[in-house]
Amino acid sequence: MTGVRRSGLPTSAVRELEQTARRTLVRHVGLALCAVAVLAVAVLLSTRLGARPTSYFASGGGGVIVLDLSTSVEPAKYRRIQRVLRSLAQTSTRVGLVVFSDDAYEMLTPGTRGDELRPLLLFFEPPPASPIVRRSGRSRGGSQELPSFGRANPWTGTFRGGTKISVGLGEARRVIERDGIEPAVLLISDLDDSALDTERLTQELIRYEADGIDLRVVPLFAFNEDRDLFEQLVGEEAFVQNRELLGNTAIEERQTLVGSFPAALVAAAAALLALLALNERFCGRVSWRRA
């Protein structure tokens, strides 16, 4: 496509029009600089949009989920596990998954798309009538009858012991060190930790702080004494509160991002369009030729 060249009007008043030409040139350069500046702001804002998978991981990205599958996790707690896993699956957050009771293993490697968690949701469907299994003693003493998981699952024959949170957190830390990923861990547990694990858990949390690993905790209706102990170790700010939990899980099935309307980006785009319009309106090239 060839350009269209406009011919100048013949005139003998060249000197009189030179001032107008300079003024037009200054306006043109000024608007061009403003447009470039607004474009740069728009690009910057686009990289800082409030859209994020969920707020479980402080970085707004992914991390490692550490999931408690000990026998103290009862049907009422399955629903909360489902809430968290489903929100991560719907937003395709990149995660790793470590499961544990008195032992731990890596179920999903870091960087796995969150939708790979969907097959696990079936195992956390509360059964209509929960069968009862007897566990020999609660973590802190005594015996208790607890419901089993509603469906047969791969970990039924493996995780039959008590809860040792330190082994789950330790496995997640080693995964982070091995893969060099974002140091963020989401612990999903009822915090009913074995009394024999308290010292090891404390040492593990000290390692977390030293290594700069951000830890968030989703408590599965923890007993007050269990939650109080954990709050002393990690602080109340580490806990995912009910309001945040509901906000993260109130996601439509087809929704892929949780975020506010990018008002600043829209305003920058509108300003850029306005500058281009002003340039076209007021900065047409002044040209002439001698008579």
Based on DSSP secondary structure assignment, what is the total number of beta strands? 9
What fold name goes in the CATH topology slot of the largest domain?
Rossmann fold
Which descriptor suits the 3D outline? elongated
What's the structural domain tally? 2
Poorly predicted ranges: 130-149, 252-259
What is the CATH superfamily classification of the largest domain? Answer: von Willebrand factor, type A domain
Provide the CATH top-level class of the largest domain: Alpha Beta
The biggest sheet amounts to: 5 strands, mixed
Mean pLDDT: 75
Strands of the biggest beta sheet: in what spatial order? 4-3-2-7-8
Structural class: alpha/beta
**What is the chain-wise order of helices and strands?**
EHEHEEHEEHEHEHHHE
Number of helices: 8
Overall CATH architecture of the largest domain: 3-Layer(aba) Sandwich
Span from first to last CA? 31 Å
Our Rg estimate from Cα atoms comes to 30 Å
Helical content band: 40-55%
Strand percentage, roughly?
15-25%
Provide key terms for this protein.
291 residues; Rossmann fold; 5-stranded mixed sheet; two-stranded parallel ribbon; 8 helices; 9 strands; elongated
How would you describe the overall organization of this protein?
The protein has 291 residues and is α/β, with parallel strands linked by helices. The chain has two domains: 10-49 and 260-290; 63-249, Rossmann fold, CATH 3.40.50.410. 42% of the residues lie in helices and 16% in strands. It has eight helices and nine strands. The chain has helices spanning 14-46, 75-90, 118-121, 165-179, 198-211, 224-234, 242-249, 263-282; strands at 9-11, 63-68, 95-100, 104-112, 132-135, 144-147, 184-189, 214-219, 288-290. The strands form three sheets. Strands 4-3-2-7-8 form a five-stranded mixed sheet, covered by helices on one side. Helix 5 (198-211) links the parallel strand 7 and strand 8. Helix 1 (14-46) packs antiparallel against helix 8 and helix 4 (165-179) packs parallel to helix 5.
